[in-house]
User: Which sequence fits this backbone?
């Protein structure tokens, strides 16, 4: 088997009010954003996130067809 090296740096941003910086933070990584979600019933957070990304000049693709608990067939 071949040897494989993987380096996945992670930036974690948290705290009061950081959601409002979504577009600014995402722009550091490119010009397109992909949101993959099961949806969050009773909230508009996904729509707000999409709008913030668009307002920051990013293209946005939304995939909402993820099953929250995949079945083992």
Assistant:
């Amino acid at each position: 088997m071949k040897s494989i090296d993987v380096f996945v740096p992670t930036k974690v941003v948290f705290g009061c009010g950081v959601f409002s910086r979504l577009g600014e933070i995402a722009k550091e990584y490119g010009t397109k954003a992909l949101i993959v979600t099961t949806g969050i019933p009773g909230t508009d957070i996904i729509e707000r996130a999409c709008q913030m990304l668009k307002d920051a000049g990013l293209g946005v693709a939304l995939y909402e067809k993820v099953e929250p608990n995949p079945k083992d067939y």
User: Anything to note?
Assistant: The CA atoms of residues 34 and 61 lie 5 Å apart. The beta strands are 32-36, 59-63. The helical segments are 22-26, 45-55.
